[in-house]
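Late entry, zinc ion complex.
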Amino acid sequence: MSAFDDLMAYQRQTEALAQIAGRLSWDRETVMPRGAAAQRSEETGALHAVLHARRADPRIGDWLEAAADGPLAQEGEAQLRLIRRSFERTQRVPADLAAALARTAALSQGKWAEARENDDCAAFAPVLAEILALKREEGAALANGGDVYDALLDDYEPEAKAADLEAMFGALHPGLIALREAALEGAAAPQVSGQFDVQAQMRLARQLAKVCGYDMQRGRLDKAVHPFSSGSGDDVRITTRTSRTDPFNCLYSTMHEAGHAIYEQSIDPAFALTPLGAGVSMGVHESQSRIVENQLGRSRAFTGWLYGQMRDAFGDIGIEGEDAFYAAVNSLHRGFIRAEADEVQYNLHVLMRFDLERALVAGDLAPRDLESAWNDRFEADFGYGVPRASLGCLQDVHWSVGLFGYFPTYSLGNVYAGCLAQALRQAVPDLDAQLAQGDMGQAMGWLRENVQQHGGLYTPRQLITRACGVEPTEAPLMTYLQEKFGALYPTA
Ligand code: ZN
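Prediction complete; structure with ligand written out below:
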Protein backbone atom coordinates (compact mmCIF):
# COMPACT_ATOMS: atom_id res chain seq x y z
CA MET A 1 0.00 0.00 0.00
CA SER A 2 1.32 3.44 -0.96
CA ALA A 3 0.77 6.52 1.20
CA PHE A 4 -1.85 7.64 -1.33
CA ASP A 5 -3.76 4.35 -0.97
CA ASP A 6 -3.62 4.59 2.83
CA LEU A 7 -4.89 8.15 2.71
CA MET A 8 -7.75 7.27 0.34
CA ALA A 9 -8.81 4.27 2.45
CA TYR A 10 -8.92 6.55 5.49
CA GLN A 11 -10.89 9.18 3.54
CA ARG A 12 -13.46 6.63 2.39
CA GLN A 13 -14.24 5.76 6.00
CA THR A 14 -14.53 9.43 6.93
CA GLU A 15 -16.85 10.10 3.98
CA ALA A 16 -18.96 7.06 4.87
CA LEU A 17 -19.38 8.39 8.43
CA ALA A 18 -20.26 11.83 7.03
CA GLN A 19 -22.97 10.20 4.89
CA ILE A 20 -24.37 8.54 8.01
CA ALA A 21 -24.45 11.91 9.79
CA GLY A 22 -26.42 13.29 6.82
CA ARG A 23 -28.88 10.40 6.96
CA LEU A 24 -29.47 11.08 10.68
CA SER A 25 -30.39 14.69 9.80
CA TRP A 26 -32.72 13.48 7.04
CA ASP A 27 -34.38 11.17 9.54
CA ARG A 28 -34.75 13.99 12.09
CA GLU A 29 -36.54 16.19 9.52
CA THR A 30 -38.86 13.48 8.16
CA VAL A 31 -39.78 10.45 10.28
CA MET A 32 -38.02 10.68 13.67
CA PRO A 33 -40.38 10.30 16.65
CA ARG A 34 -40.87 13.65 18.39
CA GLY A 35 -39.68 12.27 21.72
CA ALA A 36 -36.31 11.27 20.26
CA ALA A 37 -35.00 14.84 19.85
CA ALA A 38 -32.72 14.98 22.90
CA GLN A 39 -31.23 11.54 22.33
CA ARG A 40 -30.73 12.33 18.64
CA SER A 41 -28.87 15.49 19.48
CA GLU A 42 -26.46 13.41 21.62
CA GLU A 43 -26.10 10.84 18.83
CA THR A 44 -25.26 13.44 16.19
CA GLY A 45 -22.96 15.29 18.61
CA ALA A 46 -21.00 12.08 19.19
CA LEU A 47 -20.74 11.36 15.46
CA HIS A 48 -19.60 14.93 14.71
CA ALA A 49 -16.92 14.69 17.40
CA VAL A 50 -15.62 11.51 15.70
CA LEU A 51 -15.71 13.24 12.31
CA HIS A 52 -13.88 16.31 13.60
CA ALA A 53 -11.15 14.17 15.17
CA ARG A 54 -10.75 12.15 11.97
CA ARG A 55 -10.46 15.30 9.84
CA ALA A 56 -7.82 16.76 12.17
CA ASP A 57 -5.82 13.49 12.47
CA PRO A 58 -2.10 14.40 12.11
CA ARG A 59 -1.52 11.25 10.01
CA ILE A 60 -3.31 13.06 7.17
CA GLY A 61 -0.45 15.56 7.08
CA ASP A 62 2.13 12.74 6.88
CA TRP A 63 0.20 10.90 4.16
CA LEU A 64 -0.23 14.12 2.15
CA GLU A 65 3.51 14.79 2.30
CA ALA A 66 4.45 11.23 1.27
CA ALA A 67 1.79 11.01 -1.45
CA ALA A 68 2.89 14.29 -3.03
CA ASP A 69 6.14 12.62 -4.13
CA GLY A 70 4.51 9.91 -6.24
CA PRO A 71 3.29 10.35 -9.83
CA LEU A 72 -0.52 10.57 -9.86
CA ALA A 73 -3.23 10.81 -12.51
CA GLN A 74 -5.42 13.93 -12.76
CA GLU A 75 -8.01 12.41 -10.39
CA GLY A 76 -5.37 11.60 -7.80
CA GLU A 77 -4.00 15.15 -7.90
CA ALA A 78 -7.52 16.53 -7.49
CA GLN A 79 -8.19 14.23 -4.52
CA LEU A 80 -5.00 15.45 -2.83
CA ARG A 81 -5.89 19.09 -3.55
CA LEU A 82 -9.29 18.73 -1.82
CA ILE A 83 -7.92 16.71 1.10
CA ARG A 84 -5.10 19.23 1.65
CA ARG A 85 -7.56 22.11 1.54
CA SER A 86 -9.87 20.55 4.11
CA PHE A 87 -6.96 19.50 6.35
CA GLU A 88 -5.35 22.96 6.30
CA ARG A 89 -8.66 24.63 7.17
CA THR A 90 -9.19 22.24 10.07
CA GLN A 91 -5.63 22.91 11.30
CA ARG A 92 -6.05 26.67 11.21
CA VAL A 93 -9.13 26.85 13.44
CA PRO A 94 -8.21 26.19 17.10
CA ALA A 95 -10.22 23.31 18.59
CA ASP A 96 -11.72 25.47 21.37
CA LEU A 97 -12.95 28.02 18.80
CA ALA A 98 -14.53 25.27 16.68
CA ALA A 99 -16.25 23.89 19.78
CA ALA A 100 -17.47 27.37 20.86
CA LEU A 101 -18.89 27.94 17.36
CA ALA A 102 -20.80 24.66 17.34
CA ARG A 103 -22.17 25.28 20.85
CA THR A 104 -23.15 28.90 20.18
CA ALA A 105 -24.77 28.12 16.82
CA ALA A 106 -26.95 25.42 18.36
CA LEU A 107 -28.12 27.80 21.11
CA SER A 108 -28.57 30.90 18.98
CA GLN A 109 -30.77 29.12 16.44
CA GLY A 110 -33.34 28.63 19.22
CA LYS A 111 -33.01 32.26 20.33
CA TRP A 112 -33.43 33.42 16.73
CA ALA A 113 -36.64 31.34 16.38
CA GLU A 114 -37.99 32.92 19.55
CA ALA A 115 -37.06 36.46 18.43
CA ARG A 116 -38.70 35.84 15.06
CA GLU A 117 -41.84 34.58 16.80
CA ASN A 118 -41.98 37.86 18.76
CA ASP A 119 -40.82 40.14 15.89
CA ASP A 120 -38.15 41.26 18.33
CA CYS A 121 -34.96 42.29 16.56
CA ALA A 122 -33.53 43.90 19.71
CA ALA A 123 -33.61 40.51 21.46
CA PHE A 124 -31.72 38.96 18.54
CA ALA A 125 -28.98 41.64 18.35
CA PRO A 126 -26.80 40.31 21.23
CA VAL A 127 -27.20 36.74 19.91
CA LEU A 128 -26.03 37.89 16.48
CA ALA A 129 -23.17 39.84 18.04
CA GLU A 130 -21.91 36.72 19.81
CA ILE A 131 -21.94 34.40 16.80
CA LEU A 132 -20.57 37.16 14.56
CA ALA A 133 -17.60 37.71 16.89
CA LEU A 134 -16.79 33.98 16.75
CA LYS A 135 -17.14 33.87 12.96
CA ARG A 136 -14.84 36.89 12.58
CA GLU A 137 -12.31 35.10 14.74
CA GLU A 138 -12.67 31.96 12.63
CA GLY A 139 -12.45 33.99 9.41
CA ALA A 140 -9.26 35.70 10.61
CA ALA A 141 -7.71 32.33 11.48
CA LEU A 142 -8.63 30.91 8.08
CA ALA A 143 -7.61 34.03 6.15
CA ASN A 144 -4.07 33.92 7.53
CA GLY A 145 -3.59 37.64 6.85
CA GLY A 146 -5.95 37.75 3.86
CA ASP A 147 -9.54 39.00 3.62
CA VAL A 148 -11.78 37.69 6.41
CA TYR A 149 -15.03 37.64 4.42
CA ASP A 150 -13.34 35.87 1.50
CA ALA A 151 -12.10 33.21 3.91
CA LEU A 152 -15.66 32.58 5.11
CA LEU A 153 -17.05 32.63 1.55
CA ASP A 154 -14.42 30.07 0.55
CA ASP A 155 -16.15 27.49 2.76
CA TYR A 156 -19.15 27.45 0.43
CA GLU A 157 -17.62 28.61 -2.86
CA PRO A 158 -13.96 27.61 -3.11
CA GLU A 159 -11.73 30.32 -4.61
CA ALA A 160 -14.55 32.85 -5.05
CA LYS A 161 -13.72 36.46 -4.09
CA ALA A 162 -16.24 38.98 -2.74
CA ALA A 163 -14.85 41.72 -5.00
CA ASP A 164 -15.64 39.65 -8.14
CA LEU A 165 -19.12 38.87 -6.86
CA GLU A 166 -19.69 42.51 -6.02
CA ALA A 167 -18.88 43.50 -9.61
CA MET A 168 -21.12 40.76 -10.99
CA PHE A 169 -24.05 41.56 -8.71
CA GLY A 170 -23.58 45.30 -9.17
CA ALA A 171 -24.07 44.77 -12.90
CA LEU A 172 -27.31 42.81 -12.24
CA HIS A 173 -28.86 45.20 -9.74
CA PRO A 174 -30.19 48.04 -11.95
CA GLY A 175 -31.69 45.63 -14.49
CA LEU A 176 -33.47 43.68 -11.74
CA ILE A 177 -34.90 46.88 -10.25
CA ALA A 178 -36.17 48.00 -13.67
CA LEU A 179 -37.78 44.60 -14.32
CA ARG A 180 -39.57 44.43 -10.98
CA GLU A 181 -40.84 48.01 -11.32
CA ALA A 182 -42.21 47.36 -14.81
CA ALA A 183 -43.81 44.07 -13.77
CA LEU A 184 -45.52 45.39 -10.66
CA GLU A 185 -46.93 48.38 -12.53
CA GLY A 186 -48.56 46.10 -15.09
CA ALA A 187 -51.72 44.00 -14.84
CA ALA A 188 -51.74 41.20 -12.25
CA ALA A 189 -51.03 37.74 -13.67
CA PRO A 190 -53.71 35.02 -13.60
CA GLN A 191 -53.66 32.69 -10.59
CA VAL A 192 -54.69 29.08 -10.10
CA SER A 193 -57.67 28.58 -7.82
CA GLY A 194 -59.41 25.74 -6.05
CA GLN A 195 -58.52 23.04 -3.55
CA PHE A 196 -55.67 20.80 -4.67
CA ASP A 197 -55.73 17.27 -3.31
CA VAL A 198 -52.53 16.63 -1.39
CA GLN A 199 -52.16 12.98 -2.52
CA ALA A 200 -52.53 14.06 -6.13
CA GLN A 201 -49.85 16.75 -5.60
CA MET A 202 -47.44 14.14 -4.26
CA ARG A 203 -48.17 11.78 -7.18
CA LEU A 204 -47.50 14.57 -9.68
CA ALA A 205 -44.39 15.67 -7.76
CA ARG A 206 -43.02 12.12 -7.98
CA GLN A 207 -43.75 12.04 -11.70
CA LEU A 208 -42.02 15.41 -12.20
CA ALA A 209 -38.93 14.28 -10.29
CA LYS A 210 -38.69 11.25 -12.59
CA VAL A 211 -39.22 13.41 -15.70
CA CYS A 212 -36.26 15.52 -14.55
CA GLY A 213 -34.17 12.33 -14.34
CA TYR A 214 -34.22 11.68 -10.60
CA ASP A 215 -33.44 7.98 -10.00
CA MET A 216 -36.00 6.69 -7.49
CA GLN A 217 -34.06 3.43 -7.13
CA ARG A 218 -31.32 5.46 -5.45
CA GLY A 219 -33.54 8.10 -3.86
CA ARG A 220 -36.90 8.84 -2.31
CA LEU A 221 -39.32 11.72 -1.92
CA ASP A 222 -40.85 12.53 1.47
CA LYS A 223 -42.54 15.48 3.12
CA ALA A 224 -40.74 17.89 5.47
CA VAL A 225 -41.31 21.40 6.83
CA HIS A 226 -38.52 22.80 4.63
CA PRO A 227 -37.70 21.14 1.30
CA PHE A 228 -34.12 19.85 1.05
CA SER A 229 -31.88 17.31 -0.67
CA SER A 230 -29.50 15.10 1.30
CA GLY A 231 -26.81 12.53 0.55
CA SER A 232 -24.44 11.55 -2.25
CA GLY A 233 -23.95 8.68 -4.69
CA ASP A 234 -26.46 5.84 -4.38
CA ASP A 235 -28.59 7.32 -1.59
CA VAL A 236 -29.76 10.86 -2.36
CA ARG A 237 -33.08 11.80 -0.78
CA ILE A 238 -35.34 14.79 -1.34
CA THR A 239 -38.26 16.34 0.52
CA THR A 240 -41.09 18.67 -0.41
CA ARG A 241 -44.17 20.19 1.24
CA THR A 242 -47.78 20.64 0.23
CA SER A 243 -50.33 23.45 0.45
CA ARG A 244 -53.97 22.76 -0.47
CA THR A 245 -54.31 26.11 -2.21
CA ASP A 246 -50.88 26.47 -3.84
CA PRO A 247 -49.79 23.39 -5.80
CA PHE A 248 -46.76 25.19 -7.30
CA ASN A 249 -45.07 25.23 -3.90
CA CYS A 250 -44.92 21.42 -3.88
CA LEU A 251 -44.22 20.90 -7.58
CA TYR A 252 -41.48 23.49 -8.05
CA SER A 253 -39.71 22.80 -4.78
CA THR A 254 -39.67 19.14 -5.83
CA MET A 255 -38.09 20.07 -9.17
CA HIS A 256 -35.60 22.33 -7.38
CA GLU A 257 -34.53 19.62 -4.94
CA ALA A 258 -34.53 17.01 -7.71
CA GLY A 259 -32.05 19.25 -9.54
CA HIS A 260 -29.73 19.16 -6.51
CA ALA A 261 -30.21 15.40 -6.08
CA ILE A 262 -29.67 14.51 -9.75
CA TYR A 263 -26.34 16.35 -9.58
CA GLU A 264 -25.23 14.10 -6.70
CA GLN A 265 -26.61 10.97 -8.40
CA SER A 266 -24.80 11.77 -11.66
CA ILE A 267 -21.25 12.07 -10.32
CA ASP A 268 -18.80 9.49 -11.70
CA PRO A 269 -19.34 6.35 -9.53
CA ALA A 270 -15.54 5.94 -9.35
CA PHE A 271 -15.54 9.03 -7.06
CA ALA A 272 -18.08 7.58 -4.60
CA LEU A 273 -17.20 8.18 -0.93
CA THR A 274 -14.16 10.28 -1.82
CA PRO A 275 -13.68 14.07 -1.69
CA LEU A 276 -14.38 14.19 -5.46
CA GLY A 277 -17.72 12.41 -4.99
CA ALA A 278 -19.89 15.42 -4.08
CA GLY A 279 -21.09 18.62 -5.73
CA VAL A 280 -18.13 20.99 -6.05
CA SER A 281 -19.65 24.14 -4.45
CA MET A 282 -22.90 25.66 -3.23
CA GLY A 283 -23.01 27.96 -6.26
CA VAL A 284 -22.65 25.13 -8.78
CA HIS A 285 -25.16 23.08 -6.78
CA GLU A 286 -27.69 25.89 -6.89
CA SER A 287 -27.14 26.27 -10.65
CA GLN A 288 -28.22 22.66 -11.13
CA SER A 289 -31.39 23.08 -9.07
CA ARG A 290 -32.28 26.44 -10.62
CA ILE A 291 -31.83 25.40 -14.24
CA VAL A 292 -34.21 22.47 -13.67
CA GLU A 293 -36.72 24.56 -11.72
CA ASN A 294 -36.59 27.79 -13.75
CA GLN A 295 -34.90 27.76 -17.15
CA LEU A 296 -36.39 24.33 -17.96
CA GLY A 297 -39.30 23.86 -15.53
CA ARG A 298 -40.81 27.35 -15.82
CA SER A 299 -40.23 27.65 -19.60
CA ARG A 300 -43.19 28.27 -21.89
CA ALA A 301 -42.60 24.90 -23.59
CA PHE A 302 -42.48 22.78 -20.43
CA THR A 303 -45.35 24.58 -18.68
CA GLY A 304 -47.47 23.84 -21.79
CA TRP A 305 -46.96 20.15 -21.08
CA LEU A 306 -47.38 20.62 -17.32
CA TYR A 307 -50.72 22.38 -17.86
CA GLY A 308 -52.12 19.14 -19.33
CA GLN A 309 -50.73 17.12 -16.40
CA MET A 310 -52.29 19.55 -13.91
CA ARG A 311 -55.71 19.27 -15.58
CA ASP A 312 -55.43 15.47 -15.55
CA ALA A 313 -54.48 15.48 -11.87
CA PHE A 314 -56.82 18.17 -10.51
CA GLY A 315 -59.53 18.86 -13.12
CA ASP A 316 -60.44 22.55 -13.32
CA ILE A 317 -57.60 24.67 -11.89
CA GLY A 318 -59.21 28.05 -12.50
CA ILE A 319 -57.06 28.81 -15.54
CA GLU A 320 -57.89 28.50 -19.22
CA GLY A 321 -55.12 27.81 -21.70
CA GLU A 322 -51.37 27.26 -21.73
CA ASP A 323 -50.43 30.94 -22.04
CA ALA A 324 -52.41 31.91 -18.95
CA PHE A 325 -50.90 28.95 -17.09
CA TYR A 326 -47.37 30.03 -18.10
CA ALA A 327 -48.13 33.56 -16.81
CA ALA A 328 -49.46 32.13 -13.52
CA VAL A 329 -46.35 29.97 -13.00
CA ASN A 330 -44.16 33.04 -13.58
CA SER A 331 -46.21 35.70 -11.80
CA LEU A 332 -44.44 38.49 -9.92
CA HIS A 333 -46.02 39.96 -6.84
CA ARG A 334 -45.12 42.11 -3.86
CA GLY A 335 -43.67 40.03 -1.07
CA PHE A 336 -41.16 40.11 1.74
CA ILE A 337 -39.82 36.57 1.96
CA ARG A 338 -36.73 35.48 0.01
CA ALA A 339 -37.67 31.79 -0.03
CA GLU A 340 -41.01 32.59 -1.68
CA ALA A 341 -39.67 35.11 -4.21
CA ASP A 342 -39.86 34.81 -8.00
CA GLU A 343 -36.91 34.62 -10.41
CA VAL A 344 -36.51 38.41 -10.64
CA GLN A 345 -36.95 39.51 -7.04
CA TYR A 346 -35.11 36.53 -5.56
CA ASN A 347 -31.77 37.99 -6.58
CA LEU A 348 -32.64 41.39 -5.10
CA HIS A 349 -33.16 39.62 -1.78
CA VAL A 350 -29.77 37.94 -2.03
CA LEU A 351 -27.87 41.03 -3.16
CA MET A 352 -29.01 43.02 -0.12
CA ARG A 353 -28.05 40.20 2.25
CA PHE A 354 -24.62 39.99 0.59
CA ASP A 355 -24.01 43.71 1.18
CA LEU A 356 -25.36 43.65 4.74
CA GLU A 357 -23.37 40.61 5.84
CA ARG A 358 -20.13 42.00 4.42
CA ALA A 359 -20.74 45.17 6.43
CA LEU A 360 -21.39 43.05 9.54
CA VAL A 361 -18.20 41.00 9.07
CA ALA A 362 -16.13 44.11 8.33
CA GLY A 363 -17.44 45.77 11.50
CA ASP A 364 -19.04 48.62 9.49
CA LEU A 365 -22.53 47.61 10.64
CA ALA A 366 -23.29 46.83 14.29
CA PRO A 367 -25.80 44.01 14.98
CA ARG A 368 -28.04 46.46 16.88
CA ASP A 369 -28.30 48.58 13.70
CA LEU A 370 -29.14 45.66 11.42
CA GLU A 371 -32.91 46.15 11.50
CA SER A 372 -32.84 49.77 10.36
CA ALA A 373 -30.17 49.05 7.73
CA TRP A 374 -32.26 46.14 6.45
CA ASN A 375 -35.49 48.13 6.34
CA ASP A 376 -33.86 51.09 4.54
CA ARG A 377 -32.30 48.85 1.92
CA PHE A 378 -35.49 46.85 1.43
CA GLU A 379 -37.56 49.96 0.84
CA ALA A 380 -34.99 51.31 -1.64
CA ASP A 381 -34.87 48.06 -3.66
CA PHE A 382 -38.49 46.90 -3.41
CA GLY A 383 -40.38 50.18 -3.17
CA TYR A 384 -42.35 49.42 0.00
CA GLY A 385 -41.62 49.07 3.69
CA VAL A 386 -41.13 46.03 5.94
CA PRO A 387 -44.05 45.84 8.42
CA ARG A 388 -42.37 43.59 11.02
CA ALA A 389 -39.05 41.88 11.67
CA SER A 390 -40.29 38.35 10.93
CA LEU A 391 -40.90 39.59 7.37
CA GLY A 392 -37.58 41.44 7.45
CA CYS A 393 -34.21 40.82 9.02
CA LEU A 394 -35.39 37.85 11.13
CA GLN A 395 -36.80 35.77 8.26
CA ASP A 396 -33.72 33.65 7.48
CA VAL A 397 -32.00 31.22 9.84
CA HIS A 398 -28.55 31.62 8.19
CA TRP A 399 -26.84 34.30 10.27
CA SER A 400 -28.09 32.87 13.56
CA VAL A 401 -26.14 29.64 12.90
CA GLY A 402 -23.06 31.47 11.63
CA LEU A 403 -23.61 31.08 7.87
CA PHE A 404 -21.80 34.21 6.68
CA GLY A 405 -20.67 33.98 3.05
CA TYR A 406 -23.46 31.55 2.15
CA PHE A 407 -26.11 33.92 0.74
CA PRO A 408 -24.16 35.06 -2.36
CA THR A 409 -23.90 31.45 -3.57
CA TYR A 410 -27.66 31.53 -4.27
CA SER A 411 -27.31 34.33 -6.81
CA LEU A 412 -24.03 32.96 -8.13
CA GLY A 413 -25.98 29.76 -8.79
CA ASN A 414 -28.56 31.74 -10.76
CA VAL A 415 -25.76 33.42 -12.73
CA TYR A 416 -24.19 30.02 -13.51
CA ALA A 417 -27.62 28.63 -14.45
CA GLY A 418 -28.00 31.52 -16.91
CA CYS A 419 -24.63 30.70 -18.52
CA LEU A 420 -25.37 26.97 -18.67
CA ALA A 421 -28.87 27.46 -20.10
CA GLN A 422 -27.42 29.58 -22.90
CA ALA A 423 -24.82 26.90 -23.73
CA LEU A 424 -27.45 24.16 -23.46
CA ARG A 425 -29.75 25.91 -25.94
CA GLN A 426 -26.88 26.14 -28.41
CA ALA A 427 -26.08 22.45 -27.96
CA VAL A 428 -29.73 21.31 -28.20
CA PRO A 429 -31.42 23.55 -30.80
CA ASP A 430 -34.81 21.79 -30.61
CA LEU A 431 -34.91 21.88 -26.79
CA ASP A 432 -38.34 23.54 -26.69
CA ALA A 433 -39.90 20.84 -28.89
CA GLN A 434 -38.62 18.25 -26.39
CA LEU A 435 -39.76 20.21 -23.32
CA ALA A 436 -43.21 20.64 -24.86
CA GLN A 437 -43.47 16.82 -24.76
CA GLY A 438 -42.40 16.72 -21.11
CA ASP A 439 -39.02 15.36 -22.20
CA MET A 440 -35.99 16.65 -20.26
CA GLY A 441 -33.79 13.70 -21.22
CA GLN A 442 -31.41 15.42 -23.61
CA ALA A 443 -31.15 18.57 -21.48
CA MET A 444 -30.27 16.56 -18.38
CA GLY A 445 -27.87 14.39 -20.39
CA TRP A 446 -26.03 17.56 -21.44
CA LEU A 447 -25.78 18.72 -17.81
CA ARG A 448 -24.59 15.30 -16.66
CA GLU A 449 -21.94 15.15 -19.39
CA ASN A 450 -20.66 18.72 -19.03
CA VAL A 451 -21.10 19.49 -15.34
CA GLN A 452 -22.42 16.81 -13.02
CA GLN A 453 -20.26 13.74 -13.70
CA HIS A 454 -17.08 15.64 -12.79
CA GLY A 455 -17.92 16.03 -9.08
CA GLY A 456 -15.03 17.90 -7.46
CA LEU A 457 -12.51 17.30 -10.27
CA TYR A 458 -12.30 20.97 -11.34
CA THR A 459 -12.68 24.20 -9.38
CA PRO A 460 -16.20 25.70 -9.67
CA ARG A 461 -15.16 28.40 -12.12
CA GLN A 462 -13.09 25.99 -14.25
CA LEU A 463 -16.06 23.64 -14.40
CA ILE A 464 -18.54 26.27 -15.59
CA THR A 465 -16.02 27.73 -18.05
CA ARG A 466 -15.36 24.27 -19.55
CA ALA A 467 -19.09 23.57 -19.86
CA CYS A 468 -19.95 26.94 -21.45
CA GLY A 469 -16.80 27.49 -23.50
CA VAL A 470 -16.47 31.02 -22.02
CA GLU A 471 -15.85 32.54 -18.59
CA PRO A 472 -19.10 32.95 -16.65
CA THR A 473 -20.68 36.43 -16.44
CA GLU A 474 -24.06 37.79 -15.30
CA ALA A 475 -25.02 38.79 -18.88
CA PRO A 476 -26.82 35.57 -19.98
CA LEU A 477 -28.99 35.58 -16.81
CA MET A 478 -29.93 39.24 -17.33
CA THR A 479 -30.77 38.67 -21.00
CA TYR A 480 -32.87 35.62 -20.11
CA LEU A 481 -34.80 37.52 -17.41
CA GLN A 482 -35.33 40.56 -19.65
CA GLU A 483 -36.61 38.48 -22.56
CA LYS A 484 -38.87 36.33 -20.41
CA PHE A 485 -40.37 38.93 -18.08
CA GLY A 486 -40.27 41.71 -20.67
CA ALA A 487 -42.64 39.56 -22.77
CA LEU A 488 -44.80 38.52 -19.79
CA TYR A 489 -45.08 42.10 -18.50
CA PRO A 490 -44.82 44.43 -21.52
CA THR A 491 -44.56 48.08 -20.52
CA ALA A 492 -47.33 50.30 -21.82
ZN1 ZN B 1 -31.22 25.00 -3.63
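The first strand starts at residue 221 and ends at 223. Will revisit in the morning.
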